[in-house]
């Protein structure tokens, strides 16, 4: 007998497709339009071709922002992924403390981004901030508003505090999904804690860790509010990441053509590196 396929289910996702088209595709096409045109006001546009892309790619300013962004992104990935896995391994699997730990881990994720930046700005002030005052009191010359190393230290510490919880929750979800039969077999074979982690826990967490890496990578490339509120891109331009530089070009200088071209290059970089991460982490999955 021939099976009848009901296509009416597509009607349920049609509103979602329309919403995505309105919120994503149409703005993207607007950016593409600005990236190949020049305007002198009065809503008059002139064809410019690829001149803005050539200008952005050859700009030392873009290169410096991209390098700072890559340093920031790979630094937080190198810290947050292992730290999140370690914390998830230390969390209890049963009992009342499970709920307590999960709530505590979720708290930083509930705080708005601008509030996180303001909190850490006050917390790290060298004169009145608890962290800044304490570091200076014990002998460190700490001032994140003037010293580049201190600004980067504070920026990385703020992001680790804010987003490591996401990695913890994802890793913990992967750990609790492992059947007890695996651990029982490992105990019978006399496997060490390291062997259990390497051959049981880590492989079973591979998919959730892939999601964690991709989420943190994409979010770190799109980060704007926290570093802008914390340092404003300073001292100088030392913490001016790609997103901050893009906003300065688009809104500060109102150079819509270069800003649109930079946005598309920005988008392609994120897309390419995300694909590389996913391919490497899911290699030999079958």
Task: Describe the overall structure.
By secondary structure, this protein is mainly alpha-helical. The chain has one domain (56-281): Orthogonal Bundle (MetI-like fold). Helices cover 72% and strands 2% of the residues. It has helices spanning 10-35, 51-57, 60-90, 97-110, 113-123, 130-137, 148-176, 180-188, 193-204, 206-222, 225-230, 242-252, 256-281; strands spanning 37-39, 45-47. It has a two-stranded antiparallel sheet with strand order 1-2. Helix 7 runs antiparallel to helix 10 and helix 10 runs antiparallel to helix 13 (256-281). The longest helix has 31 residues, at 60-90. It is globular.
Quick overview of this protein structure:
With 286 residues, the protein is mainly α. The protein has 13 helices and two strands. It has one domain (56-281): Orthogonal Bundle (MetI-like fold), CATH 1.10.3720.
Q: What is the distance, rounded to the nearest whole angstrom, between the alpha carbons of the first and last residues?
A: 34 Å
Number of helices: 13
Number of domains: 1
The top level CATH class name: Mainly Alpha
Q: What is the chain-wise order of helices and strands? A: HEEHHHHHHHHHHHH
Annotated CATH architecture: Orthogonal Bundle
List low-confidence stretches. Answer: none
Query: What is Rg?
Result: 24 Å
What form results from the Cα inertia axes? globular
The major beta sheet can be summarized as:
2 strands, antiparallel
For this structure, the CATH topology is: MetI-like fold
Strand content: under 5%
Mean pLDDT metric: 88
In which range does the helix fraction lie?
Answer: over 70%
CATH superfamily grouping:
MetI-like
